[in-house]
Amino acid sequence: MNSLISTAELADHLADPDWVVIDCRFQLTDPQWGRSQYHHSHIPGAYYADLNQDLSAPVGKLGGRHPLPDPQELAAQLTAMGVVWGKTTVVVYDDAWFAFGARLWWLLRYYGHDRVALLDGGWPAWLREDRPVTEQLPPPRVGSFTPQLQADWIVEIAQVQQPERGFILVDCRDRDRYLGHHEPIDPIAGHIPGAINRPWREITTAAGYSQSLGVQRDLWADLPWDQELVVYCGSGVTACVNLLSLTVAGRPWAKLYPGGWSDWCAHLSNTA
Question: Residues 32, 178, 266, 166: is their CA dihedral positive or negative?
């Protein structure tokens, strides 16, 4: 199915038992904010997935700020939301230009569940169009979700550290962070040697909608189509927005370095 869905199409399926909606609103500076907003108001029937608690494993000394979650733990949550692996259509939304919703979009596909789409325009678009909202929490449902990991979709730091990588490494952070002019989160400024920059914010418009197909293709047109791409960001979250763009543009075989810059910095500190 398409990786993006309109508000109108979602509105037509709110009562469809084969559809599940998941709210992924979140703020890195206030981790409780997203859940609080969800309890205040959300799309009818939507469940909530928290970036730190649900879509990431506990942080360790290495592995980055948002390690990939335990597949079985997330699968249990998806099952309780009524998701049936390979069958249920899952629609994910946030209010941050796909920054957090794309993480779950990618995780579901990484688990072999392709029937997932991001709500184009997200929560702001839903509100602008005066579509229904509620504070009522949906009851648990009965699903069946058994992850089938696509193991070759990710790379580990050892592969990134190779002098001859065999792939193009793409830094998805804002350009100032890539250049080392500004680093608000991690202890070291700069980027992984040899990486090029494609800021994740270029994937959407200011209003939070996906750029046109032509723009998505142009963003990657200068990179050889026969060359493998590996994307990273600070901790494997917003890089998924770039993976969305690559999928929309017709290059869905790019891989993720989940640890990202935070993992790279941790290894530098560990060996210093």
Answer: positive
E-only strand ranges, 138-245: 168-171, 196-197, 229-232
CB 24 within 8 A of CB 94: yes
Instruction: Identify the residue whose tokens are 């799309």.
Output: 43
Give the Cα separation of 27 and 169 in Å (integer).
27
Residue 63: which residues within 8 A CB-CB, separation 6 or more? Answer: 57, 258, 259, 263, 266
pLDDT tens by residue, 138-183: 999 999 999 999 999 999 999 999 989 999 999 999 999 999 999 9
Distance CA 258, CA 155 (A): 8
pTM: 0.97
- CATH homologous superfamily for 4-128? Rhodanese-like domain (3.40.250.10)
Q: What residue segments make up the domains of the chain, in order of their start? A: 4-128, 151-271
pLDDT tens digit string along 6-27? Answer: 999 999 999 999 999 999 999 9
Mean pLDDT of 192-208: 98
Alpha helices by DSSP H, listed for 52-168, are: 71-80, 101-110, 122-128, 157-160
- Catalytically annotated residues: 233
Q: Is the pLDDT score of 188 beyond 60?
A: yes
**Domain spanning 151-271 has what CATH number?**
3.40.250.10
